[in-house]
Amino acid sequence: MLRLSAELAAQIREHARRAYPEECCGALLGQEGPEGRQVLAVVPLENTRTDARRNRFLVDAAGVLAAEREAARRGLLLLGWYHSHPDAPARPSAYDCEHAWPWYSYVIVAVEQGRPAALTSWRLQEDRAAFVSEPVTEVAVAVG
Amino acid sequence: MAVRVLIPTPLRPYAERREAVELEAATVGEALARLVEQFGELRRHLYADSGRLRSFVNVYVNEEDIRYLKQEQTPLRDGDVISIVPSIAGGRGVCHD
Fold first, then answer.
1. How far apart are CA B33 and CA B25, in angstroms?
2. pTM of the entire structure?
3. CB of B4 closer than 8 Å to CB of B22
4. Does the distance separating the beta carbons of A94 and B88 come in below 8 Å?
5. CATH number of residue B21's parent domain
6. What are the residues facing A111 on neighbouring strands?
7. Under 8 Å CB-to-CB from A9, ≥6 apart: which residues?
8. What does CATH list as the number for A2-139?
9. Which of residues 21-80 of B touch A (CB under 8 A)?
10. Is the residue at B28 inside a domain?
């Protein structure tokens, strides 16, 4: 279960809208407990791909370390990442699967002709063969 | 050489939840090999079927990327710190533009 406020979901969607027709990406910071994960902050990041930005994104090692430092600064965990799929479903691709890390939550937002649409979350299966859908609950206000 | 390998958050569940592992190795390649010998579940997340490090696995020795050193043949000294740092990559799939 991944919980995030409507405001944070809106921030992700707005980043995706601004980046269209290219892919956007960012970090998810929050907490983890018995009831699942709660996203308490999102950090937009630069897509460091210099090519194929319409269908590929990359947060390089420096970006990952910066996200970890920001999480530590805020006393939060780096729970995972978000990215957008311009004119494609909010479902992981084979490329997403091939490059994924375990443990992280991967939020994907579809952008249909410039309009943000479905937002989903996924966790890499233990055997790396596929992703497992992680239920997302958008809450009215941040809690916890 | 006695070195310390820092384990990134997503791999800690496969390394007994440890943030770091101390081990003996002469090169980076040897250190990573000993790491996956000790924690076998790390292997599939660090290495492709080809036996090579996955492209999104970045390895540093004392903050120097091994790609700019001698890759996995980079020699180690006592007290060196090896960091495994993810890159995060993905995308929607084939672009038809």
1. 9
2. 0.92
3. yes
4. no
5. 3.10.20.30
6. A86, A116
7. A119, A138
8. 3.40.140.10
9. 44-45, 55-56, 58, 60, 65
10. yes
Q: Give the range of the structural domain holding residue B14, as residue numbers without chain letter.
A: 2-86
| Interface contact A102-B14, CB threshold 8 A | yes
Give residue limits of the domains in chain A.
2-139
The reply to whether A20 touches chain B by the CB within 8 Å rule is no
Structure tokens belonging to residue B50: 């080809």
Residue A65, Cβ density class (10 Å: 0-12 exposed, 13-18 middle, ≥19 buried): middle
> For residue B96, is it within any domain?
no
Residue B63 lies in a domain: yes
Banded pLDDT at A141 (limits 50, 70, 90): low
Q: Over the stretch A80-118, which tens digit does the pLDDT of each residue have?
A: 999 999 999 999 999 999 999 999 999 999 999 999 999
- Cis before residue A44, ω within 30 degrees of 0? no
Tell me which chain A residue has its CA closest to the CA of residue B90. A96
ipTM over 0.85: yes
Return the residue of A nearest to B9 by Cα. Answer: A103
Show residues of chain A in contact with B81, CB under 8 Å. Answer: none
Task: Give the angle B46-B48-A135 at the CA atoms, nearest 5°.
Answer: 70
> To the nearest whole angstrom, how far is the Cα of B55 from the nearest Cα of chain A?
8
Report d(CA A67, CA A56) in Å as an integer: 19
Total number of domains constituting chain B? 1
